[in-house]
Structures are given as C-alpha cells and as structure tokens.
Amino acid sequence: MVVGKDNVAYYGIVVSVIELLYPAGMLVVLFKCRWFNTDPNFSRSTKMDHGLLSVNTSTSWYEHAPFVLAIQAKQVFYLDDPKVGGGWKVVNVMEHISIFKATTLQGGRVEQNIENVALELYQEPLTSDISDTSTIHINNDIQFPQG
User: Fold this and answer.
1) Which long-range contacts (CB under 8 A, 24 or more apart) does 59-66 make?
2) What is the pLDDT of residues 121-135, one digit of tens each?
C-alpha cells in the first residue's frame, strides 16, 4: 500500500523487486506492482463495511506506472471477503511492533520526534526473588490416578 500525494491509498501486489546499485554503494530498492483500481470515482473499486476496507483485486490501475520506492510502501495482507466474494479482498495494514511514532509539541505545533523511534527492542533487567535455588526440587515422577 502506498498513500499518494492526493491522499488516495493505492493497493496492489508486488510482482518483482528491483535493486539499483549506484556508485559509492548507494542502493535503491523498487517494487514493481500490479495496482488494484482504488479510484474513488469508480463504484466497484473499494467498499467499506463495518470498518473493514475491501478492494476489488480483479481490476487494475496505473499499468503504465507500476514502480514505487520500497521505503514508500507499507506492508498489507489480503483476506478473502466472504460477504462479497469474487475478487474482493479485505485489507489489513501491518503495524510493526518494534517501531513506533511519537510526536512532541514544539512551539505550539506538532513535530515528529525522531529520537523516539525504537531501533531495538527493550528488555527489562532480569531479577529474581528466589534467593537460594539449591532448595528447588523438580519431581518428574508423574502418577495418574487409576479410574
């Protein structure tokens, strides 16, 4: 999924991944996609039902512009829409657990605080309330009642 400058969400599937290696080791990754028609002026492109978005995957859009920068894309997955059937799929946008967005108020306006982006997962220090582990006995002799 890519959100365009016109605030329209473009949904599709990745057909291929292209890596462009420029001098000085600069790597640019492109996704070649088959875009589904999500034109808001086209009645059979998307449906919203009980807060779930369904897209018609049997339609295509922007065949002449299939490429998007990988950093612009968000991962989604599609589930069959049992209510509509056919080529309709329910869209679920993935949220990655190790990355979050935090905003701060600076001078009366909201700014992105890039320092709050988690680069690695945080683990609480391990502490134990058990002072002496030598007295712990494990009984592996399991007996089942006869019935």
Assistant:
1) 59/87, 60/34, 60/35, 60/36, 61/10, 61/35, 61/36, 61/37, 62/10, 62/35, 63/35, 66/15, 66/32, 66/33, 66/34, 66/35
2) 566 666 656 566 566
